[in-house]
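In practice, a research group might receive sequence data for several interacting partners and want a quick structural hypothesis before committing to experiments. The following worked case mirrors that situation: the sequences arrive first, and a predicted assembly follows.
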Amino acid sequence: MLREVVVVGLILGGAIFMALAGLGMLRMPDLFLRMSSSAKAGTLGAGLILLGAAIHFDNFSIYTRALAIIIFLMLTAPVAAHMIGRAAYFDGVPLWEGTVQDDLRGHYRASTHALETTTIPQNDRPITDIEADPETSDFDR
Amino acid sequence: MSLLLLNILLAIAWAALTGSFEPVDLLFGFGLGYLVLWLITRMGKTPKYFRQIPLVLGLLGVFLVDLLRANIRMAGIILSPHMKLRPAVVAVPLILKSESAIILLSNMMTLTPGTLSLDISTDRNTLFMHTVYLDDPEEFKRQLLTGYERRLKELFEA
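A structural hypothesis for the assembly, expressed as tokens:
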């Protein structure tokens, strides 16, 4: 009885977090905000559902498998978010106009894709930076 | 790390002696082995291993609580009719030197309160993070430094 309550709570909680992440994808104004809504909730939601399933079956091999899946999700989801964010920034996906600060601007070198601590000259920056500064016209898209 | 290996071996030995490889027995064996290893290495300087295990457990606990807190906060933002957003990309100077510590830090930052690691500079000195709500950049950097980064520095570079 108690186990059933715990299992239902975990799976329901996981499903709610994932549904909210989906709602966040619709409501958030730009790609980076959408990612911070989905990267976290996806991991926690899947983790809770897996934990609920493991407790339901209460079998050692299922516990270890659930644990392994959760660990791999935690290791890989942030890497995927990092790669998507980086690719989007290079591809000119604009940040929401309400963004108060953008420290990435001027630090990517477009020719080598390196991220440097020093400021990069105007003609070697990715598309996002050029669009943000209308007066730079020496870059032909 | 050979002490960790020894500890795992002791746990397996315990399970073999009691004749049951149930998770509880393995865990109990690990705890017992930890105690034994601590007793026999107590003579000289305390090895790094005995400081690391409590640090790992503390870090894991803080991280899991933060993961839950981050999601509840995010849910609150998503459900409010006028989403209170003040997004920003902030460059945070890193004090960590080891690559695995940096990877762990950026992964944890992506999964915890309102932040998303976007990229790490090629020279491994700066972490660029996207945050959902930025009050004060200096406060934001200070918070990160005192939280996870200090723990990870102790764990990897002490």
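Before designing any experiment, note the following. Strands of chain A lie at 101-102, 108-109, 114-115. Chain A has a mean pLDDT of 80.
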